[in-house]
Amino acid sequence: MCQDFKKTLTWVGLATSVMGLALWQAQLVVTREQKAHGSMVLPPTKIRHAERVSARSRVVGDAVTNYLTRESKGLSDRELGWILDDFQTAGLDIGLGMGP
Fold first, then answer.
1. What's the CA gap between 53 and 51, in Å, rounded?
2. d(Cα 68, Cα 74) in Å, to the nearest integer?
3. What is the Cα–Cα distance from 42 to 33, expressed in whole angstroms?
4. What angle do CA 55, 60, 66 make, to 5 degrees?
5. What pLDDT is stored for residue 30 in this prediction?
């Protein structure tokens, strides 16, 4: 019984050490990327966060008028594409088109 406990403790210690080493290496890579690309690391293209923020920042004028104008136009093709990408990335499209 004591032998099994020692083996388990050894494996847990080894796994913890490996995870610590992996996290340290990941931190080094992120730091290197930040230095190479400036202070800001761009988000993954799949998220498209940078595009969405810049599109929102272009809104000027009366907020109510802008909202009513956009509401009458509906969604743009780009916005619809973002919704579909997010839907598929989240895995919510699995099983669509299949009957009950």
1. 6
2. 10
3. 10
4. 85
5. 85
